[in-house]
Amino acid sequence: MDGQRGQRVHPDRNDRVSRLTRIAAVPAAGLVALVAALLGAPCSAQRAVPRSLTGDSATLAAIASRYPRDRSDTLSTFPLHELAPGVYVVLGDTGRGVEGRPNAGFIVTSGGVVVVDALASPGEGRVLLRTIRSVTTRPVRYLFLTHHHPDHTFGAIVFTRLGARVIAHPDRRTLADINGDDQLASDWTGVMGLEQMRGFAFADTPNIPVTRDTALRLGGRRLDIIRPGPAHTAGDLMLWLPAERVLFAGDVLVEDGVSMMVDGNSTAMLGALARIDSLRPRVVVPGHGRLPNDATALVSATRCYVLGLRATMRHSVTDGVRMGQALDRLPPADRDRPVSLHSRLRRNAVRVYAEMEHALLSPAESAAALAGEARQRAACAP
Ligand SMILES: [Zn+2]
Q1: pLDDT under 70 in the chain at which residues?
Q2: What is the distance in A from the centroid of ligand 1 to the CA of 149?
Q3: pTM to 2 decimals?
């Protein structure tokens, strides 16, 4: 049922959900030009993008790296691991950072199932659903989305057609959809292939919009929705199970690479990391990569990276070092791979340099805040 192209979804869903998007193959030359334009764009052009979005796009990453390595249409289920009774992580295509298939998850309660993220296409969503059905036949009541990048949301229609209600932040803006939803869907189809996208319609607009910390109770379980601020994207949320001490962190944490901030900002990222620490989680599920043996260590490493980048870029700005020169110290970006590790390091640096420029012009950073950052940074390995 969910695989039929052109099928209408529930009439009570809002415009975006019910509006069907025409899927079209994307000319390869157009994709290459798109990627090349972003990679090669001078920093001044990136700063001209509205709303401080300076160049992240899971779409572009996947376009460039031909995202599907293990074709989900050949898989019956994804690898599954039980984190606590009834709490599962569906393991992604680890080792490839943001270029790989993300992690997802689900929580089984007596009142139904809560799915955490929907993966990158209806094809992947169908495999995710089969993975859930290998454990339980209970109805999927809610789909929780950690953020609105397509690799985490384009399988959502599989679950909304079953009647699941979407819990997400209402701010869907990312650079990936800066040219509009139809273009995004078309671009992403170029990544995933028509077969994977069969039955696609946008379904990430929340039925239950969440903009601040919110507690959800279902079937005797408590699920805390945490709003960490715009760390990775404008619409970031995390899901915390206080009884089990399990956190689904979304792409605020990336185990097999570095967290990206180009659709968010580094100040919010530091706040999100502090929030994770305050929870003292037993298990954190990063958006990509393996489950870390030591959640605290992954948070610390991410914090040290962000603090180090901020300090370096702040010094560059203060010393009058131009952005291009500041970037010279980093390894070159990988051509046509905008979210490979080297490309990510570089693009995060562009973003943070711009933040530091802005901070210099509007001295919002207090001396106390700077001293606090320096103290935290002293705890990082050199
Ligand atoms: Zn992701």
Answers
A1: 1-74, 96-98, 336, 338-339, 363-366
A2: 7
A3: 0.81
